[in-house]
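Example record

One chain of 212 residues, shown exactly as stored in the release files.
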Amino acid sequence: MKKLEIDNYPNLLDHININTEEIFEQLKGFKLNFFNVRNSEAEWKISFPMFLTPFYKFIYLNNSIIDQENYFQYYLSENKDYFSEKVFSQEIMEGLKARIFRTYPSLVRDFHFSVFLKENFKDAKIIYNRKLDIEEGIDILIIFNSNYFGINLYTNTTRAFIGREKKEYRHVNFDNVHYIELPVEFKGSVKCGDFFLYGEKEFNQIQTILNK
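Predicted structure tokens for this chain:
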């Protein structure tokens, strides 16, 4: 049997001092760009360093969100030894940039929602841990009435990209975690500038499940 030992997964949210209002204000000034590029090697054949690691590292160090272009540059900087050793072609790098640009909004959306849940669940503990996310497929962990609930967030567009990264690590579900699949449709989502975010609708869905 595989049991989740919560002490093995420190909560990143305990070390971040940014609220949803501040996130919202930042995002209103960000523009999203996407490239009509699909390089098959960059999409499927090359195991690049994880996309979400530098994203959360930047938030941890700066208590702010990074915009799309700077996120890509920060990703390259954080993995400079890898890219210096590999020396990919321009076509592959353009394909990687297009892929990262498509992934970026889902990273923002998931982080915003974790902070949103932390602010709105007064009787539950909200946990984000990178290892839980990458290796165990739990985007957000909720502790409610001494029970563990693992939230899996996805949309039809993000699942193919960030979800594929997580599946590189085959994981066995924890026996003491209740897993909640939370697919979201953009219709009815919170709109912030170019971003679609999770909000009250998804919060109420989770609350209904927990109260059962």
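Notes: The chain is about 45% helix and 15% strand.
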